[in-house]
Specification:
The complex is a heterodimer of chains A (221) and B (469). Chain A is α/β, with parallel strands linked by helices and 221 residues long. Chain A has helices at residues 3-15, 20-28, 42-52, 66-76, 162-171, 215-220; strands at 56-61, 82-85, 103-106, 115-119, 122-124, 129-133, 148-154, 158-159, 178-182, 187-188, 196-197, 204-210. Chain B folds into 2 domains: 6-302, Rossmann fold, CATH 3.40.50.10420; 415-468, no CATH class. The chains are: A alpha/beta (221), B alpha/beta (469). Chains A and B meet through helix 1, helix 2, helix 5, strand 9 and strand 10 of A and helix 2, helix 3, helix 4, strand 1 and helix 8 of B.
């Protein structure tokens, strides 16, 4: 008997193995209690939770001001203006030429990169969490290798609760290879029981909220 | 990293109580997690309702475990992953070794995985010529020190900062000997640099899984450092090792656990990196592993289904029970002798390793009930500890003097006419002094503290006197 058959046989001997109820539940996908905070103004809740988790948050700024907002933050943080940036066309809409000193290299991250720039699939207000979906134009390494990560979040991509984000993900084509839900910069309290930022992933997570106007106007573009 | 074994509990606990550096770390530990959990729970009014929901989801999954595992396997395969069903620890070790051999792998970058500790993976791979490097900071220091974890969430909770410095100086000999390395930030920066090279050079990566999602065939990890993500993204293959009880139905169900697990474990609203992995790198992806394997481990879990210990399989390994446990907070995790310490370990270890070897762990409990109070999936831990104690007694596994002592007490306790005169006499004798510095047969108590004097009269006689008034 294979390991698989042996394990399943042991389970069935103990549980009886009727599956109708489970099949129905799997199809219905019932939701658990929804936190009341998910119904609050998503912009305010998202920014407050993200800050509480150790992220810095700028904006909302209009799309044309995004390059300036990034350049300013890099100067303040004493970081280089050369960015490993996502190949995602979502970044094409910003007027990068307005800041000629900013260099965007659209590729996956390499170990020597110091700053990454990515768009986000969604921001979840209940915990100030960024949702990153992997894909040919969205390499995962950008989220983890560089020491600073700048993430752009469109205000209209903010949702209240995790379940809202899953619903959007299913509508956008299903489960990618990697879903990275990111809530603040990397950290560890393993050394001397004291919390420090920047264990293996980014030491700094900077979120720039992009105000893209009312949903109707944006959808028409 | 070999474990002392549960059988040595009494000796190990005594040693832990006398270990001053350990006691200093435990004193600092005993507040942090517990306070942060309470604060996080109070920020979320729905927390208690979510705990009920989490319990119900797990109960439903355990009742239909075969269905969800098969559905999970189907969806994982559809995404290009391979599922390895392993009935025993040896099966799991061999399955992982076979993957390493086929890929010609010499090094493995590891995220924190208690199940990999359960199967003794590192030692086994080392014998077979594969070097496994722990990349979680806590696990890394333990590997350098040749120790096992003492806590399932913060495995190096017992290691003081000076001991990190010492171990790093001894291990990282290619670095300047006169470098400054006393501060925690310096230690972390060095660990980051050293382990970067390990991620980049590793042939395979291995992580555990907090959950498996039947609907999507995904594995999920909840972490804060980012090492689990680097371990699974940079090497050629990602191997996931998970117990069969980890499967849950849907992303909606995952949302419930996203709300209870981090709050219960560290008091965070959500862990920094909550990552779902579904199969290997897809066509045209710029990064990610070329192979994705899931090793599903039974190792005694299925045998806990359907009996009085089934509820233990709801456990999501948050460690809230040990953070709240007065016994754990005195002796730390090593005394328990195996991977799983504290109240959850006292119930799970006898289940996985047998009552003969570990049946005495549930005796190390004050039955204060704190563990059940904080458990996010409401596992009745004290009740199950009592079940193990009954079994241990029934199978005559206790030392003879305990059994005879308990038998003698039970004989009197069941016969009030005999018991009451004895109790009244004892109360009078014990009430003849203010306190007792030494008491025959109670040396275990009076060795470290005085025994308080009794009021001079037994409860029953006071009760009767009160009723007459």
């Amino acid at each position: 008997m294979s390991g698989r058959d042996a394990i399943l046989a042991r389970i069935r001997a103990a549980t009886g193995g009727a599956k109708g109820e489970a099949e129905e539940r799997l199809a219905a996908r019932p939701r658990g209690p929804r936190p009341a905070r998910a119904a609050e103004d998503p912009l305010e809740r998202f920014a407050a939770e993200a800050r509480a988790a150790g992220s810095t948050v700028a904006g909302p700024v209009p799309p044309e001001e995004v390059p300036a907002a990034i350049a300013e933050w890099l100067v303040n943080e004493n970081l280089p203006a050369r960015l490993a940036a996502s190949p995602d066309p979502a970044l094409d809409r910003y007027p990068w030429s307005s800041r000629p000193l900013l260099t965007l290299e659209r590729r996956r991250a390499e170990p020597e990169d110091r700053v990454a720039l990515t768009p986000c699939f969604a921001g979840v207000a209940e915990t100030g969490t960024l949702a990153m979906l992997s894909g040919p134009e969205r390499p995962v390494t950008l989220n983890f290798l560089p020491e600073a990560h700048i993430a752009l979040v469109n205000a209209r991509d903010l949702v209240g609760a995790y379940e809202d984000m899953w619903a959007r993900m299913r509508a956008a084509g299903g489960t990618p290879r990697a879903v990275n839900l990111i809530t603040g910069p990397s950290r560890s309290a393993d050394i001397g029981q004291e919390l420090r930022m920047g264990a293996h992933g980014p030491r700094r997570l900077h979120i720039v909220l992009v105000d893209d106007g009312p949903p109707e106007a944006s959808d028409a573009c | 990293m070999s474990f002392a074994g549960p059988a040595n509990f009494r000796r190990s606990a005594a040693r832990a109580l006398a270990d001053e550096p350990l006691q200093r770390e435990l004193a600092r530990f005993s507040q942090g997690f517990q306070v942060r959990r309470v604060e996080a729970a109070s920020r979320l009014p729905e927390f208690e309702a979510l705990r009920d929901r989490a319990r119900d989801i797990k109960n439903h999954c355990l009742a239909h475990l075969d269905f969800y595992l098969e559905r999970y396997e189907e969806n994982c395969r559809a995404a290009g992953g391979e599922v390895h069903w392993c009935a025993t620890a040896e099966d799991a070790r061999q399955a992982i070794l076979a993957i390493c051999r086929r890929l010609g792998a010499k090094t493995m970058a590891k995220g924190k995985s208690m199940v990999s500790e359960e199967i003794g993976l590192n030692e086994f791979l080392a014998e077979e010529g594969v070097r496994a490097v722990e990349t979680d900071l806590g696990e890394y220091i333990l590997q350098l020190r040749g120790e096992s974890p003492s806590h399932i969430v913060a495995p190096a909770i017992h290691v003081a900062t000076e001991q990190w410095t010492e171990a790093f100086r001894a291990a990282h000999t290619d670095r300047p000997a006169d470098r400054s390395l006393s501060d925690g930030s310096e230690i972390m920066a060095e660990a980051r640099a050293v382990l970067r090279e390990q991620f980049l050079g590793a042939d395979v990566g291995l992580t555990g899984a907090n959950f498996l999602i039947a609907e999507t065939g995904s594995s999920v990890i909840f972490t804060n450092e980012g090492n689990g993500d680097l371990s699974q993204t940079l090497p050629r293959a990602h191997i996931v090792i998970a117990g069969i009880e980890k499967v849950i139905p849907t992303l909606e169900d995952l949302s419930v656990f996203m709300r209870v697990l981090p709050r219960s474990a560290t008091g965070q609203e959500l862990t920094v990196y909550t990552t779902l992995s579904t199969g290997p790198r897809r066509p045209e992806d710029l990064d990610g592993p070329e192979e994705y394997h899931v090793v599903l481990l039974d190792n005694g879990r299925a045998d806990m289904l359907g009996g009085e210990f089934q509820d233990m399989l709801r456990c999501i390994r948050c460690a809230a029970c040990m953070n709240a446990c007065p016994v754990y907070k005195q002796i730390g995790g090593h005394a328990y002798g195996w991977v799983y310490p504290g109240p959850m370990g006292a119930v799970l270890t006898p289940g996985l390793r047998g009552v003969e070897e570990a049946g005495h762990l549930p005796n190390a409990s004050t039955f204060c009930g704190k563990c059940e109070e904080v458990c996010p999936v409401r596992i009745p831990l004290p009740r199950m500890m009592r079940h193990w104690r009954e079994r241990e007694f029934a199978r005559r596994l206790l030392p003879a003097r305990f059994r005879y002592g308990l038998g003698l007490w039970a004989f009197f306790a069941a016969r009030p006419a005999l018991y009451r005169p004895f109790a009244a006499l004892a109360a009078r004798v014990l009430g003849s002094r203010k306190r007792w510095r030494r008491l025959p047969l109670a040396g275990g108590w009076t060795g470290t503290r005085d025994f308080p004097a009794s009021e001079g009269r037994s409860f029953m006689s006071l009760w009767r006197a009160g009723r007459r008034r």
